[in-house]
Design brief:
FAD/NAD(P)-binding domain, 20 strands, about 15% strand, five-stranded parallel sheet, 2 domains, eight-stranded mixed sheet, about 550 residues, alpha/beta, globular, about 30% helix, 15 helices, disordered C terminus, binds ligand NA7
Length: about 550
C-alpha cells in the first residue's frame, strides 16, 4: 500500500506520518519501512532522542537500568551496544539514540526542526492532512503520535518571574551549550526526579544552592556505578528471559524478583531487613519488596516509615531532615525518585532548603526569590517544575477528526482513549504510550515496542483486508476509560496530587491517566483484541477509491 501524489495534486503524501523522533518514533519508522509502508517523521528537535534530546540538565539519568531501558527488537543491537554504567547518563542515552538512527539508516525519513501544527481528517478521502511549521501541508492515510509523555516542559506562572535579571533554565528544555554555575548562587525550584538528580551536581559547582521545595519526595539511592564486562555479558546471555519477563510478567516492564507476600506478613524485624537490603541495592525495585505496597495504606506506611528513617539518618540538621521527609502522599504514588547523594547534599554548607509548601513563593524579583517576606538572593534560577505530562504534547497540535471536532475539545474533561491507542472520532490516528495505556508507569521502551508492534500488525491487517479506516468504538472507549479508573481506584495512587492525575497543571482535569493493570496484563488485552478481529474498533472501507495501491 502506498499513497502517492497524482500529477494534478502536488501534495506530498505518505502512508503514515509519525510525529516525533524519540524512541517511539524511531522504532515506528523502522517497522513501517520494513513492512513496505511509506513514512515521514516530523521532529521539532534538531536531533533524535525525544525526551533525552531535551532533558540535558546536570545529573540527568534514566531511572530504569540501562541494560533494560534499551530496545529489544534487534538482537544484534542489544548484543553490541555497551552501556557504561548501571544507569547511563543522558549523553550516553542520546548517543545510543543516535547510534540506532545511524545503524538503521533512519535519518533520511526524518525531518528535524519541524513542528507539526495541525492534523485534519478528511472524511471523504479518509486522509489526514498534516500542516507542518511554515504552513506546508502533507497528506497521509495514518498519523502516529509518538510525541512522548514528558516532553512538554512547564514553566510555572510565578509572579515576577519576568523581572528576574539572571538566566532561567528549565530542566526539561536545557541549553545545548554547557552551563557553568561556578561562583553563582543558584535557586532550584522543584523536587521531582529532575530536581533531585540535578541538586547534588549543581551544589558541587555553585557558590550556594537554595532548593525551594513544595512537596518532599521519596527517593531511593541509585547505587549507580560502572558496569563490568562480566555484568554486561551476564545480562546479554539472559536477555531472552529478561525481555520475556519484562514484556509478559512484570507489572512495570522491569525484570526483577516478584514479591510473593505482603508487608504485614513479615515481622517488623524481617521487614526492616528486607527494606534495608533493597535500599542497599538501590533502584526502583524498592517498591517490589512486597506485593501490597501500592494497595494497602498500612503496608505502604511501613515502607514510607523506613525511607523517612533513612532521611533522618542521612541529614544531619534535624529541621532540614524533617522538611525532607515526605508526609503528603503514600510512597510510590508519585513516581519514586532514584538519586545519587540527594539527601546528603543538604549536609553541605553551601546548600539550604526553603519550604514553599507552608509559605509559597510570593514573588521573584530582579535578584531573589521572596518567600514569607524574606528575599533569597540568587544569580540563576533552575526550574525543575516538570511537564504537562502525557497529554501536553498532543494538546499543542490542533487535531481535528470527524466533523472537524478537535481532540482538545474532546479531551477537555480528561483524555479518553480505547486502550490508550486511539480516540473515538479520530480515525487512523494512533497514539504511542498514550493515556489509558501503562505508559509512564512502566519501562517506557518495553511499552513503546509493544505499541509499535501492535500498530504495525494492525496496519498490515488493514492492508491485507483492503480497509481504509479504523477507529475506536465509542462504547468500547467508554468501557475502557471506566476500567482504567476502576483499576486505579483500587490502589493508593489517586491519593497523591501527582502528574499521573494531571494535578500539577492548574485547571487540568484530575483523572488517573496511565493504565495501572500492568504491562503483561495490558499486552494480553491488546493481543486478544487483535485476535478477535480488532474488537472494539470500527473498520471501514474508503468512500472514494484510494489513490493507489501497491
Ligand atoms: P515532576 O516530577 O513533575 O516534579 C516537578 C517538581 O516541581 C515537583 O516537586 C513540583 O511540586 C514542583 N513544582 C511544580 N510547579 C511548581 C510551582 N509552581 N512552584 C513550586 N514548585 C513547583 O517533574 P520532574 O521533571 O522532576 O520529573 C518528571 C519525570 O521525569 C519523573 O517522574 C521521571 O519519570 C522522569 P509538587 O510535587 O507539584 O508539589
Amino acid at each position: 500500500m502506498s499513497v502517492q501524489s497524482s500529477p494534478a495534486q502536488a501534495t506530498e503524501a505518505y502512508d503514515v506520518i509519525v510525529v516525533g523522533a524519540g524512541f517511539a518514533g524511531m522504532y515506528m519508522l523502522h517497522r513501517l519501512r520494513g513492512l513496505g509502508f511509506s513514512a515521514r517523521v516530523y521532529e521539532q528537535g534538531g536531533g533524535v532522542g525525544g525526551t533525552w534530546y531535551w532533558n540535558r540538565y546536570p545529573g540527568a539519568r534514566c531511572d530504569v537500568e540501562s541494560m533494560q531501558y534499551s530496545y529489544s527488537f534487534s538482537e544484534e543491537l542489544q548484543q553490541e551496544w555497551d552501556w557504561s554504567e548501571r544507569y547511563a547518563p543522558q549523553p550516553e542515552i542520546l548517543q545510543y539514540a543516535n547510534h540506532v538512527a545511524d545503524r538503521f539508516d533512519l535519518r533520511r525519513d526524518i525531518q528535524f526542526d519541524t513542528r507539526v501544527e495541525r492534523a485534519m481528517f478528511d472524511e471523504r478521502t479518509a486522509t489526514w492532512s498534516v500542516t507542518i511549521a511554515g504552513g506546508k501541508t502533507v497528506d497521509a492515510r495514518f498519523v502516529v503520535l509518538a510525541t512522548g509523555c514528558l516532553s512538554n516542559a512547564r514553566k510555572p506562572d510565578i509572579k515576577g518571574l519576568e523581572n528576574f535579571k539572571g538566566p532561567v533554565y528549565h530542566t526539561g528544555n536545557w541549553p545545548h551549550e554547557p552551563v557553568d554555575f561556578t561562583g553563582l548562587r543558584v535557586g532550584l525550584i522543584g523536587t521531582g526526579s529532575s530536581g533531585i538528580q540535578s541538586a547534588p551536581i549543581i551544589a558541587g559547582q555553585a557558590r550556594h544552592l537554595t532548593v525551594f521545595q513544595r512537596t518532599a519526595n521519596f527517593s531511593i539511592p541509585a547505587r549507580n556505578g560502572a558496569l563490568t564486562d562480566e555484568e554486561r555479558n551476564a545480562f546479554r546471555k539472559k536477555y531472552p528471559e529478561i525481555r520475556r519477563f519484562a514484556r509478559e510478567v512484570a507489572r512495570n516492564g522491569i525484570y526483577a524478583e516478584q514479591p510473593d507476600r505482603g508487608a504485614l506478613d513479615d515481622s517488623e524485624e524481617e521487614r526492616r531487613a528486607k527494606f534495608r537490603a533493597r535500599w542497599d541495592r538501590g533502584g526502583l525495585t524498592f517498591m517490589y519488596v512486597y506485593n501490597n505496597l501500592g494497595l494497602e495504606r498500612a503496608a505502604n506506611d511501613t515502607a514510607a516509615d523506613f525511607v523517612r528513617g533513612k532521611i533522618a539518618e542521612i541529614v544531619k540538621d534535624p529541621e532540614t531532615a524533617k522538611l525532607l521527609q515526605p508526609n503528603s502522599h503514600p510512597i510510590g504514588t508519585k513516581r519514586i525518585c532514584i538519586d545519587t547523594d540527594y539527601f546528603a547534599t543538604f549536609n553541605r554548607p553551601n546548600v539550604s532548603l526553603v519550604d514553599i509548601k507552608a509559605d509559597p513563593i510570593e514573588e521573584i524579583t530582579a535578584n531573589a526569590v521572596r518567600v514569607a517576606g524574606r528575599d533569597h538572593e540568587v544569580d540563576a534560577l533552575v526550574m525543575a517544575t516538570g511537564f504537562d505530562a502525557m497529554t501536553g504534547s498532543v494538546a499543542k497540535i490542533d487535531i481535528r477528526g470527524r466533523g472537524g471536532r478537535t481532540l482538545n475539545r474532546k479531551w477537555a474533561e480528561g483524555p479518553k482513549t480505547y486502550l490508550g491507542l486511539m480516540s473515538a472520532g479520530f480515525p487512523n490516528l494512533f497514539i504511542i504510550t498514550g493515556p489509558g495505556s501503562p505508559s509512564v508507569l512502566s519501562n517506557m521502551i518495553v511499552s513503546i515496542e509493544q505499541h509499535v508492534d501492535w500498530i504495525a500488525d494492525c496496519l498490515v491487517h488493514m492492508r491485507e483486508q483492503g480497509l481504509a479506516t479504523m477507529e475506536a468504538d465509542t462504547e468500547a472507549e467508554e468501557k475502557w476509560v471506566a476500567h482504567v479508573n476502576e483499576v486505579a481506584s483500587g490502589t493508593l495512587y489517586p491519593q497523591a496530587s501527582s502528574w499521573y492525575m494531571g494535578a500539577n497543571i492548574p485547571g487540568k482535569p484530575r483523572i488517573f491517566m496511565p493504565y495501572i493493570g500492568g504491562v503483561g496484563v495490558y499486552r494480553r488485552i491488546c493481543d486478544d483484541v487483535a485476535a478477535k478481529g480488532y474488537e472494539g474498533f470500527v473498520m471501514g472501507w474508503a468512500e472514494v477509491p484510494q489513490a493507489a495501491a501497491s
